[in-house]
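Customer ticket, subject: "Can you confirm the structure for Transcription factor, contains a PHD finger motif?"

Message body: Hello, I'm evaluating your service for our small team and ran a test protein. I'd like someone to confirm that this is what the system normally returns, since I don't have a reference to compare against.
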Amino acid sequence: MSEEPGQGTGAPDWGVPVHLDVPPMESAGQSSAPISPTPPPGQLPYSPSPQPAGFFPVEARAIPPHLGLALSEGPYADSPASPASAGSAPEERKAVSPSHVLPPNFRGPIPREGDAETIAPRPTWIPAFEDASLGQLHNFPLNKNGWRYTAAGPAAEWLPTTVYKTLELAPEGVHWSWQDRSAFMRISDDAMVVGTDKGYRSVRTNLGVRHGAWYVEVEILAPDASSMPSTPMRDGPHARVGFARREAGLNAPVGWDGYSYGVRDQNGARVTLSRPKPFGRAFGPGDVVGLYIRLPSESTPPPSGTEHSIHQNRVPIRYKGQLYFESLEYPPSKEMEVLMDRNRRGETLCNDADGAPKPAPPGKAADRDEKRPGQAGRAKRAPLRALPTLSGSCIGFTVNGEPQGIAFTDLYDFRPLAAAETAPKKRERKRGADGEITAHTSVSAVLRSRLNAYDDGSLGYYPMVSLYGGARARLIPRDFRYPPPPHLEDVLWSANEARGEPTLHKSPAPAWQPFAARWRECVQEWERHDRAADRDASKIVGAKEGPHLSN
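Agent reply: Thanks for trying us out. I re-ran your input and got the following:
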Protein backbone atom coordinates (compact mmCIF):
# COMPACT_ATOMS: atom_id res chain seq x y z
CA MET A 1 0.00 0.00 0.00
CA SER A 2 1.36 3.42 -0.96
CA GLU A 3 2.23 5.81 1.80
CA GLU A 4 0.36 8.94 2.78
CA PRO A 5 1.43 11.78 5.07
CA GLY A 6 0.58 11.04 8.65
CA GLN A 7 0.94 7.27 8.53
CA GLY A 8 3.25 5.42 10.86
CA THR A 9 4.03 5.63 14.52
CA GLY A 10 6.61 7.38 16.59
CA ALA A 11 6.02 10.74 14.91
CA PRO A 12 8.20 13.51 16.33
CA ASP A 13 6.67 16.38 18.27
CA TRP A 14 6.85 19.50 16.12
CA GLY A 15 5.26 21.69 18.81
CA VAL A 16 2.51 23.16 16.61
CA PRO A 17 -1.30 22.96 16.81
CA VAL A 18 -3.13 20.52 14.57
CA HIS A 19 -6.44 21.28 12.85
CA LEU A 20 -8.58 19.16 10.57
CA ASP A 21 -9.98 21.82 8.25
CA VAL A 22 -7.21 21.59 5.69
CA PRO A 23 -7.53 21.81 1.90
CA PRO A 24 -6.32 18.80 -0.08
CA MET A 25 -2.64 18.70 -0.96
CA GLU A 26 -1.79 19.46 -4.57
CA SER A 27 -0.87 16.58 -6.81
CA ALA A 28 2.76 15.71 -7.26
CA GLY A 29 2.81 16.65 -10.91
CA GLN A 30 1.06 20.00 -10.60
CA SER A 31 3.01 22.90 -12.02
CA SER A 32 2.76 26.54 -11.12
CA ALA A 33 2.37 29.64 -13.24
CA PRO A 34 4.63 30.01 -16.29
CA ILE A 35 8.09 31.39 -15.77
CA SER A 36 7.39 34.45 -17.86
CA PRO A 37 4.27 36.11 -19.25
CA THR A 38 3.07 35.74 -22.83
CA PRO A 39 4.66 38.42 -25.04
CA PRO A 40 2.44 41.47 -25.54
CA PRO A 41 0.90 42.08 -28.96
CA GLY A 42 3.49 43.17 -31.47
CA GLN A 43 6.44 41.62 -29.68
CA LEU A 44 8.30 39.19 -31.89
CA PRO A 45 9.42 35.96 -30.18
CA TYR A 46 12.93 34.70 -30.83
CA SER A 47 13.29 31.62 -33.02
CA PRO A 48 15.91 28.97 -32.20
CA SER A 49 15.07 27.03 -35.38
CA PRO A 50 17.83 26.52 -37.97
CA GLN A 51 16.75 29.36 -40.32
CA PRO A 52 18.59 32.49 -41.51
CA ALA A 53 19.18 34.95 -38.69
CA GLY A 54 16.04 36.94 -38.10
CA PHE A 55 12.75 36.65 -36.33
CA PHE A 56 9.23 35.37 -36.69
CA PRO A 57 6.79 37.37 -38.82
CA VAL A 58 4.26 39.66 -37.17
CA GLU A 59 1.48 37.13 -37.61
CA ALA A 60 3.25 34.67 -35.31
CA ARG A 61 0.92 33.16 -32.73
CA ALA A 62 1.27 33.56 -28.98
CA ILE A 63 3.96 31.24 -27.66
CA PRO A 64 2.79 28.49 -25.29
CA PRO A 65 4.37 28.96 -21.84
CA HIS A 66 5.89 25.48 -21.87
CA LEU A 67 8.33 26.57 -24.59
CA GLY A 68 10.53 28.38 -22.08
CA LEU A 69 11.94 31.87 -21.83
CA ALA A 70 13.86 31.85 -25.11
CA LEU A 71 10.59 31.96 -27.04
CA SER A 72 8.12 33.50 -24.60
CA GLU A 73 10.33 36.50 -23.72
CA GLY A 74 10.73 37.70 -27.30
CA PRO A 75 13.89 38.47 -29.35
CA TYR A 76 17.13 39.50 -27.75
CA ALA A 77 17.07 43.29 -27.84
CA ASP A 78 20.86 43.31 -28.00
CA SER A 79 21.36 40.33 -30.32
CA PRO A 80 23.19 41.09 -33.58
CA ALA A 81 20.33 39.37 -35.42
CA SER A 82 17.53 41.30 -33.73
CA PRO A 83 15.81 44.29 -35.38
CA ALA A 84 16.31 46.39 -32.24
CA SER A 85 20.06 45.97 -32.40
CA ALA A 86 20.24 46.52 -36.16
CA GLY A 87 18.35 49.80 -36.03
CA SER A 88 19.94 51.37 -32.98
CA ALA A 89 22.88 53.72 -32.82
CA PRO A 90 26.31 52.26 -31.97
CA GLU A 91 26.44 54.08 -28.64
CA GLU A 92 23.08 52.55 -27.68
CA ARG A 93 24.27 49.01 -28.42
CA LYS A 94 27.19 49.13 -25.94
CA ALA A 95 30.08 47.83 -28.00
CA VAL A 96 31.36 44.39 -27.07
CA SER A 97 34.55 44.23 -25.03
CA PRO A 98 37.62 43.33 -27.18
CA SER A 99 38.05 40.15 -25.12
CA HIS A 100 34.59 38.94 -26.19
CA VAL A 101 34.61 39.11 -29.98
CA LEU A 102 31.50 37.44 -31.35
CA PRO A 103 31.62 34.93 -34.22
CA PRO A 104 29.85 35.76 -37.51
CA ASN A 105 26.06 35.32 -37.47
CA PHE A 106 26.00 34.86 -33.71
CA ARG A 107 22.35 34.83 -32.64
CA GLY A 108 22.61 34.97 -28.86
CA PRO A 109 22.70 37.93 -26.50
CA ILE A 110 25.62 40.36 -26.75
CA PRO A 111 27.99 40.38 -23.76
CA ARG A 112 27.79 43.56 -21.70
CA GLU A 113 30.39 45.35 -19.64
CA GLY A 114 28.79 44.37 -16.32
CA ASP A 115 28.24 40.69 -17.08
CA ALA A 116 29.65 38.35 -14.44
CA GLU A 117 32.55 36.17 -15.60
CA THR A 118 33.43 34.18 -12.47
CA ILE A 119 30.30 33.75 -10.33
CA ALA A 120 26.84 35.12 -11.06
CA PRO A 121 25.43 37.69 -8.61
CA ARG A 122 23.09 36.60 -5.87
CA PRO A 123 19.42 36.79 -6.95
CA THR A 124 17.18 39.51 -5.55
CA TRP A 125 15.69 38.05 -2.37
CA ILE A 126 12.43 39.34 -0.90
CA PRO A 127 11.42 38.21 2.63
CA ALA A 128 7.96 36.73 3.12
CA PHE A 129 7.30 39.68 5.45
CA GLU A 130 9.39 42.19 7.35
CA ASP A 131 12.18 40.48 9.32
CA ALA A 132 11.18 37.05 7.95
CA SER A 133 13.92 34.41 7.80
CA LEU A 134 12.57 32.92 4.55
CA GLY A 135 11.38 34.50 1.33
CA GLN A 136 11.22 34.24 -2.44
CA LEU A 137 13.22 35.56 -5.37
CA HIS A 138 12.29 38.42 -7.68
CA ASN A 139 12.67 38.29 -11.47
CA PHE A 140 14.40 34.94 -11.35
CA PRO A 141 13.72 31.80 -13.45
CA LEU A 142 12.95 28.59 -11.57
CA ASN A 143 13.36 25.13 -13.05
CA LYS A 144 9.79 24.24 -13.98
CA ASN A 145 7.45 23.53 -16.88
CA GLY A 146 10.08 21.11 -18.18
CA TRP A 147 12.85 23.72 -18.51
CA ARG A 148 16.10 24.17 -16.61
CA TYR A 149 18.10 27.37 -16.20
CA THR A 150 21.80 27.67 -15.42
CA ALA A 151 23.72 30.91 -14.89
CA ALA A 152 26.05 31.84 -17.75
CA GLY A 153 28.84 34.33 -18.37
CA PRO A 154 30.84 35.52 -21.39
CA ALA A 155 34.08 33.72 -22.20
CA ALA A 156 34.58 34.33 -25.92
CA GLU A 157 38.35 34.56 -25.45
CA TRP A 158 38.50 30.77 -24.95
CA LEU A 159 35.05 29.79 -26.26
CA PRO A 160 35.09 31.55 -29.65
CA THR A 161 32.08 29.69 -31.06
CA THR A 162 29.69 29.18 -28.14
CA VAL A 163 30.83 32.45 -26.43
CA TYR A 164 29.31 31.65 -23.01
CA LYS A 165 30.42 29.43 -20.14
CA THR A 166 28.66 27.92 -17.12
CA LEU A 167 28.62 29.93 -13.90
CA GLU A 168 27.32 29.26 -10.42
CA LEU A 169 25.06 31.68 -8.60
CA ALA A 170 26.43 33.28 -5.44
CA PRO A 171 27.16 32.39 -2.72
CA GLU A 172 30.16 30.29 -3.70
CA GLY A 173 30.09 26.70 -2.52
CA VAL A 174 27.43 24.09 -1.82
CA HIS A 175 23.98 25.32 -0.80
CA TRP A 176 20.32 24.73 -1.57
CA SER A 177 19.71 25.58 -5.21
CA TRP A 178 18.11 28.93 -5.91
CA GLN A 179 16.37 27.65 -9.04
CA ASP A 180 16.15 23.87 -8.57
CA ARG A 181 13.31 23.96 -6.06
CA SER A 182 9.54 24.03 -6.03
CA ALA A 183 8.05 27.47 -6.56
CA PHE A 184 6.31 26.98 -3.20
CA MET A 185 9.56 26.32 -1.34
CA ARG A 186 10.79 29.42 0.50
CA ILE A 187 14.51 29.99 0.96
CA SER A 188 16.78 32.07 3.19
CA ASP A 189 18.95 34.89 1.86
CA ASP A 190 22.08 32.71 2.17
CA ALA A 191 20.40 29.68 0.51
CA MET A 192 21.17 27.41 3.48
CA VAL A 193 17.67 27.16 5.03
CA VAL A 194 14.41 26.27 3.26
CA GLY A 195 10.80 25.87 4.36
CA THR A 196 7.29 25.66 2.97
CA ASP A 197 3.75 26.37 4.09
CA LYS A 198 2.29 23.94 1.53
CA GLY A 199 2.07 20.19 1.13
CA TYR A 200 5.21 18.25 0.31
CA ARG A 201 7.59 20.44 -1.70
CA SER A 202 11.22 19.65 -2.46
CA VAL A 203 14.56 21.28 -3.18
CA ARG A 204 17.88 19.90 -4.38
CA THR A 205 21.35 21.21 -3.70
CA ASN A 206 23.09 23.24 -6.37
CA LEU A 207 25.59 20.42 -7.00
CA GLY A 208 25.25 16.68 -7.45
CA VAL A 209 27.70 13.78 -7.28
CA ARG A 210 28.57 11.19 -9.91
CA HIS A 211 31.43 9.21 -8.39
CA GLY A 212 32.98 8.45 -5.01
CA ALA A 213 31.74 8.51 -1.41
CA TRP A 214 30.23 11.67 0.09
CA TYR A 215 28.68 12.85 3.35
CA VAL A 216 26.43 15.82 4.16
CA GLU A 217 24.16 16.79 7.05
CA VAL A 218 20.67 18.28 7.17
CA GLU A 219 19.40 19.85 10.38
CA ILE A 220 15.64 19.71 10.88
CA LEU A 221 14.35 23.03 12.24
CA ALA A 222 11.12 23.89 14.01
CA PRO A 223 8.63 25.99 12.02
CA ASP A 224 8.72 29.75 12.33
CA ALA A 225 6.39 32.52 11.19
CA SER A 226 7.91 32.60 7.69
CA SER A 227 7.15 28.92 7.02
CA MET A 228 3.91 28.23 8.88
CA PRO A 229 0.69 28.11 6.81
CA SER A 230 -2.19 30.38 7.76
CA THR A 231 -4.17 27.25 8.61
CA PRO A 232 -1.90 24.51 10.05
CA MET A 233 -1.87 21.30 8.05
CA ARG A 234 -3.89 18.37 9.34
CA ASP A 235 -0.88 16.15 10.00
CA GLY A 236 1.41 18.89 11.21
CA PRO A 237 4.87 19.66 9.78
CA HIS A 238 6.95 16.82 8.36
CA ALA A 239 10.31 16.36 6.66
CA ARG A 240 12.09 13.81 4.51
CA VAL A 241 15.72 13.75 3.46
CA GLY A 242 17.61 11.71 0.91
CA PHE A 243 19.16 11.74 -2.55
CA ALA A 244 17.47 12.34 -5.89
CA ARG A 245 18.27 12.46 -9.58
CA ARG A 246 17.38 15.30 -11.92
CA GLU A 247 14.19 13.56 -13.06
CA ALA A 248 12.68 13.53 -9.55
CA GLY A 249 9.74 15.92 -9.25
CA LEU A 250 10.03 18.98 -7.02
CA ASN A 251 6.34 19.03 -6.10
CA ALA A 252 6.54 15.55 -4.58
CA PRO A 253 8.43 14.12 -1.59
CA VAL A 254 11.78 12.40 -1.90
CA GLY A 255 11.15 8.67 -2.32
CA TRP A 256 7.96 9.24 -4.29
CA ASP A 257 9.38 7.56 -7.41
CA GLY A 258 12.37 5.50 -8.48
CA TYR A 259 14.45 8.61 -9.08
CA SER A 260 14.87 9.33 -5.38
CA TYR A 261 15.66 7.55 -2.11
CA GLY A 262 14.92 8.93 1.35
CA VAL A 263 13.89 8.47 4.97
CA ARG A 264 10.78 9.77 6.75
CA ASP A 265 10.72 11.75 9.96
CA GLN A 266 7.62 10.07 11.42
CA ASN A 267 8.97 6.58 11.94
CA GLY A 268 12.40 6.60 10.32
CA ALA A 269 11.16 4.42 7.46
CA ARG A 270 13.18 4.25 4.25
CA VAL A 271 11.18 4.94 1.12
CA THR A 272 11.54 4.78 -2.65
CA LEU A 273 8.87 4.23 -5.28
CA SER A 274 6.39 5.30 -2.55
CA ARG A 275 7.02 2.02 -0.69
CA PRO A 276 8.03 2.73 2.94
CA LYS A 277 9.83 0.03 4.90
CA PRO A 278 11.00 -0.06 8.53
CA PHE A 279 14.55 1.20 8.86
CA GLY A 280 15.72 3.61 11.58
CA ARG A 281 14.36 5.83 14.30
CA ALA A 282 12.10 8.85 14.02
CA PHE A 283 13.57 12.34 13.95
CA GLY A 284 12.24 15.88 14.26
CA PRO A 285 13.15 19.49 15.09
CA GLY A 286 16.62 19.80 16.54
CA ASP A 287 17.83 16.52 15.05
CA VAL A 288 20.64 16.35 12.50
CA VAL A 289 20.35 13.70 9.80
CA GLY A 290 23.58 12.58 8.15
CA LEU A 291 23.36 11.48 4.50
CA TYR A 292 25.96 9.14 3.04
CA ILE A 293 26.16 8.07 -0.60
CA ARG A 294 28.65 5.91 -2.41
CA LEU A 295 28.82 5.68 -6.21
CA PRO A 296 31.26 3.73 -8.41
CA SER A 297 34.61 5.39 -9.05
CA GLU A 298 35.17 7.36 -12.22
CA SER A 299 37.40 4.59 -13.58
CA THR A 300 34.63 1.99 -13.27
CA PRO A 301 33.12 1.17 -16.69
CA PRO A 302 29.49 2.33 -16.84
CA PRO A 303 26.80 -0.33 -17.16
CA SER A 304 25.49 -1.25 -20.58
CA GLY A 305 22.17 0.16 -21.70
CA THR A 306 22.96 3.82 -20.97
CA GLU A 307 24.31 6.76 -22.96
CA HIS A 308 27.87 7.37 -21.80
CA SER A 309 28.74 10.44 -23.88
CA ILE A 310 28.43 13.95 -22.47
CA HIS A 311 26.75 16.37 -24.86
CA GLN A 312 25.20 19.76 -24.09
CA ASN A 313 22.13 21.09 -25.86
CA ARG A 314 21.28 24.55 -24.55
CA VAL A 315 20.86 28.14 -25.70
CA PRO A 316 22.08 31.32 -23.97
CA ILE A 317 19.42 33.87 -23.06
CA ARG A 318 19.31 37.16 -21.19
CA TYR A 319 16.47 37.38 -18.67
CA LYS A 320 16.00 40.48 -16.51
CA GLY A 321 19.55 41.55 -17.28
CA GLN A 322 21.18 38.25 -16.25
CA LEU A 323 22.59 35.63 -18.60
CA TYR A 324 21.37 32.03 -18.40
CA PHE A 325 21.55 28.81 -20.34
CA GLU A 326 18.12 27.38 -21.10
CA SER A 327 17.77 23.64 -21.65
CA LEU A 328 15.09 21.00 -21.45
CA GLU A 329 14.92 19.11 -18.18
CA TYR A 330 15.26 15.33 -18.33
CA PRO A 331 11.76 13.79 -18.25
CA PRO A 332 10.90 10.49 -16.53
CA SER A 333 11.42 7.51 -18.81
CA LYS A 334 8.60 5.21 -19.85
CA GLU A 335 10.41 2.33 -18.18
CA MET A 336 10.54 4.13 -14.83
CA GLU A 337 6.86 5.03 -15.07
CA VAL A 338 6.01 1.37 -15.69
CA LEU A 339 8.14 0.37 -12.70
CA MET A 340 6.28 2.92 -10.59
CA ASP A 341 2.91 1.51 -11.68
CA ARG A 342 3.98 -2.05 -10.89
CA ASN A 343 5.15 -1.06 -7.43
CA ARG A 344 1.86 0.70 -6.76
CA ARG A 345 0.13 -2.60 -7.52
CA GLY A 346 2.59 -4.50 -5.34
CA GLU A 347 4.05 -6.48 -8.25
CA THR A 348 7.72 -5.74 -7.57
CA LEU A 349 9.95 -4.89 -4.65
CA CYS A 350 12.46 -2.05 -4.76
CA ASN A 351 16.22 -2.37 -4.36
CA ASP A 352 16.57 -2.00 -0.59
CA ALA A 353 19.60 -3.10 1.37
CA ASP A 354 17.98 -6.35 2.55
CA GLY A 355 18.46 -8.39 -0.60
CA ALA A 356 17.61 -8.67 -4.28
CA PRO A 357 14.22 -7.69 -5.72
CA LYS A 358 11.63 -10.45 -5.83
CA PRO A 359 9.84 -11.40 -9.05
CA ALA A 360 6.36 -10.14 -9.74
CA PRO A 361 3.62 -12.53 -8.64
CA PRO A 362 1.38 -14.04 -11.33
CA GLY A 363 -2.05 -12.55 -11.74
CA LYS A 364 -4.08 -10.17 -13.84
CA ALA A 365 -1.02 -8.16 -14.83
CA ALA A 366 0.21 -11.07 -16.94
CA ASP A 367 -3.21 -11.56 -18.50
CA ARG A 368 -3.22 -8.01 -19.85
CA ASP A 369 -0.43 -8.90 -22.27
CA GLU A 370 -2.49 -11.66 -23.93
CA LYS A 371 -3.56 -10.99 -27.49
CA ARG A 372 -7.10 -9.72 -27.77
CA PRO A 373 -9.54 -9.96 -30.71
CA GLY A 374 -8.77 -7.49 -33.47
CA GLN A 375 -5.08 -7.15 -32.63
CA ALA A 376 -3.71 -9.67 -35.12
CA GLY A 377 -2.37 -7.08 -37.56
CA ARG A 378 -1.36 -4.46 -35.01
CA ALA A 379 2.33 -3.66 -34.75
CA LYS A 380 4.00 -4.75 -31.55
CA ARG A 381 5.10 -2.14 -29.08
CA ALA A 382 8.80 -1.58 -28.63
CA PRO A 383 10.07 -3.66 -25.70
CA LEU A 384 10.84 -1.82 -22.50
CA ARG A 385 14.52 -1.14 -21.92
CA ALA A 386 16.23 -2.51 -18.84
CA LEU A 387 16.95 -0.10 -16.00
CA PRO A 388 20.68 -0.48 -15.28
CA THR A 389 21.94 -0.22 -11.71
CA LEU A 390 25.25 0.92 -10.27
CA SER A 391 26.96 -2.08 -8.73
CA GLY A 392 28.39 -1.37 -5.30
CA SER A 393 26.48 1.89 -4.83
CA CYS A 394 24.62 2.53 -1.60
CA ILE A 395 22.92 5.17 0.55
CA GLY A 396 23.03 5.29 4.34
CA PHE A 397 21.85 7.59 7.12
CA THR A 398 22.74 8.70 10.63
CA VAL A 399 20.67 10.64 13.19
CA ASN A 400 22.60 12.83 15.62
CA GLY A 401 25.70 10.79 14.85
CA GLU A 402 23.98 7.47 15.58
CA PRO A 403 24.30 5.13 12.57
CA GLN A 404 20.95 4.00 11.20
CA GLY A 405 22.45 1.71 8.57
CA ILE A 406 22.61 1.30 4.81
CA ALA A 407 19.11 1.88 3.47
CA PHE A 408 19.56 1.27 -0.28
CA THR A 409 22.02 -0.56 -2.50
CA ASP A 410 22.59 -0.90 -6.25
CA LEU A 411 21.02 2.45 -7.08
CA TYR A 412 19.60 3.05 -10.52
CA ASP A 413 22.13 4.53 -12.93
CA PHE A 414 21.75 8.29 -13.33
CA ARG A 415 22.69 8.28 -17.02
CA PRO A 416 20.01 8.38 -19.75
CA LEU A 417 18.84 5.07 -21.13
CA ALA A 418 20.25 4.16 -24.52
CA ALA A 419 17.90 5.09 -27.33
CA ALA A 420 15.55 2.32 -28.42
CA GLU A 421 15.15 1.50 -32.10
CA THR A 422 11.73 2.60 -33.27
CA ALA A 423 10.01 2.58 -36.63
CA PRO A 424 9.83 5.98 -38.35
CA LYS A 425 6.53 7.73 -37.77
CA LYS A 426 4.53 9.49 -40.41
CA ARG A 427 4.90 13.23 -40.05
CA GLU A 428 1.73 14.94 -38.97
CA ARG A 429 0.89 18.61 -39.12
CA LYS A 430 -0.46 19.79 -35.79
CA ARG A 431 -2.84 22.70 -35.67
CA GLY A 432 -3.57 25.31 -33.08
CA ALA A 433 -1.46 27.49 -30.84
CA ASP A 434 0.03 24.47 -29.10
CA GLY A 435 1.02 22.74 -32.34
CA GLU A 436 2.11 25.51 -34.69
CA ILE A 437 4.05 28.70 -33.99
CA THR A 438 4.38 29.92 -37.58
CA ALA A 439 3.80 28.43 -41.00
CA HIS A 440 7.32 26.98 -40.83
CA THR A 441 7.84 26.29 -37.12
CA SER A 442 5.85 24.04 -34.78
CA VAL A 443 6.01 23.33 -31.09
CA SER A 444 7.08 19.75 -31.70
CA ALA A 445 9.89 20.88 -34.00
CA VAL A 446 11.24 23.29 -31.41
CA LEU A 447 11.06 20.69 -28.64
CA ARG A 448 12.73 18.04 -30.81
CA SER A 449 15.58 20.43 -31.57
CA ARG A 450 16.14 21.00 -27.86
CA LEU A 451 15.83 17.41 -26.59
CA ASN A 452 19.04 15.91 -25.27
CA ALA A 453 19.28 12.14 -25.30
CA TYR A 454 22.73 12.32 -23.73
CA ASP A 455 24.17 13.25 -20.37
CA ASP A 456 24.86 16.99 -20.31
CA GLY A 457 27.14 16.73 -17.30
CA SER A 458 24.49 17.74 -14.76
CA LEU A 459 23.19 14.23 -14.13
CA GLY A 460 23.97 12.49 -10.87
CA TYR A 461 22.57 12.20 -7.36
CA TYR A 462 21.72 15.35 -5.40
CA PRO A 463 20.98 15.76 -1.68
CA MET A 464 17.27 16.54 -1.47
CA VAL A 465 14.90 17.59 1.30
CA SER A 466 11.10 17.51 1.18
CA LEU A 467 9.12 19.61 3.64
CA TYR A 468 5.46 19.69 4.59
CA GLY A 469 3.21 22.12 6.43
CA GLY A 470 5.70 24.62 7.86
CA ALA A 471 8.78 22.43 8.33
CA ARG A 472 12.24 23.91 7.77
CA ALA A 473 15.68 22.41 7.10
CA ARG A 474 19.26 23.68 7.13
CA LEU A 475 22.03 22.28 4.91
CA ILE A 476 25.40 21.55 6.54
CA PRO A 477 27.99 20.70 3.82
CA ARG A 478 31.04 21.18 6.10
CA ASP A 479 31.92 21.73 9.78
CA PHE A 480 29.58 18.89 10.68
CA ARG A 481 27.67 18.78 13.94
CA TYR A 482 28.42 15.06 14.20
CA PRO A 483 31.62 14.35 12.26
CA PRO A 484 31.52 10.72 11.08
CA PRO A 485 34.41 8.29 11.50
CA PRO A 486 36.75 7.64 8.57
CA HIS A 487 35.26 4.16 8.07
CA LEU A 488 31.66 5.43 8.03
CA GLU A 489 30.30 2.83 5.61
CA ASP A 490 31.55 -0.05 7.75
CA VAL A 491 29.84 1.51 10.77
CA LEU A 492 26.59 1.82 8.82
CA TRP A 493 26.75 -1.82 7.73
CA SER A 494 27.26 -2.79 11.37
CA ALA A 495 23.90 -1.20 12.16
CA ASN A 496 22.28 -3.44 9.54
CA GLU A 497 23.95 -6.49 11.02
CA ALA A 498 22.73 -5.54 14.50
CA ARG A 499 19.17 -5.67 13.16
CA GLY A 500 19.78 -9.10 11.66
CA GLU A 501 19.68 -7.86 8.07
CA PRO A 502 21.86 -9.52 5.41
CA THR A 503 24.85 -7.62 4.07
CA LEU A 504 25.01 -9.25 0.65
CA HIS A 505 26.02 -6.05 -1.11
CA LYS A 506 28.80 -5.06 1.26
CA SER A 507 32.15 -4.30 -0.38
CA PRO A 508 35.32 -2.35 0.51
CA ALA A 509 34.49 1.34 0.72
CA PRO A 510 36.60 4.34 -0.34
CA ALA A 511 37.30 7.22 2.00
CA TRP A 512 34.34 9.60 2.17
CA GLN A 513 34.57 13.32 1.41
CA PRO A 514 32.57 16.24 2.83
CA PHE A 515 30.06 17.50 0.32
CA ALA A 516 31.68 20.95 0.37
CA ALA A 517 34.70 19.44 -1.43
CA ARG A 518 32.49 18.79 -4.44
CA TRP A 519 32.48 22.51 -5.33
CA ARG A 520 35.99 22.70 -6.81
CA GLU A 521 35.51 19.44 -8.68
CA CYS A 522 32.31 20.74 -10.22
CA VAL A 523 33.91 24.00 -11.41
CA GLN A 524 36.61 22.00 -13.19
CA GLU A 525 33.98 19.73 -14.78
CA TRP A 526 32.04 22.75 -16.05
CA GLU A 527 35.14 24.11 -17.76
CA ARG A 528 35.87 20.77 -19.43
CA HIS A 529 32.28 20.46 -20.65
CA ASP A 530 32.24 24.07 -21.91
CA ARG A 531 35.43 23.52 -23.91
CA ALA A 532 34.10 20.27 -25.35
CA ALA A 533 30.83 21.97 -26.36
CA ASP A 534 32.77 24.75 -28.10
CA ARG A 535 34.87 22.22 -30.03
CA ASP A 536 31.74 20.38 -31.14
CA ALA A 537 30.09 23.62 -32.23
CA SER A 538 33.22 24.65 -34.15
CA LYS A 539 33.16 21.37 -36.08
CA ILE A 540 29.50 21.88 -37.00
CA VAL A 541 30.13 25.45 -38.16
CA GLY A 542 33.17 24.35 -40.13
CA ALA A 543 31.22 21.58 -41.84
CA LYS A 544 28.49 24.03 -42.88
CA GLU A 545 30.94 26.66 -44.15
CA GLY A 546 33.27 24.19 -45.88
CA PRO A 547 31.52 24.04 -49.29
CA HIS A 548 31.26 27.85 -49.45
CA LEU A 549 34.94 28.33 -48.62
CA SER A 550 36.01 25.95 -51.37
CA ASN A 551 34.20 27.89 -54.14
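A couple of notes from the result: Helices lie at 69-72, 83-86, 90-93, 334-344, 364-367, 443-450, 488-498, 518-550. The CA atoms of residues 222 and 285 lie 5 Å apart. Feel free to reply with more questions.
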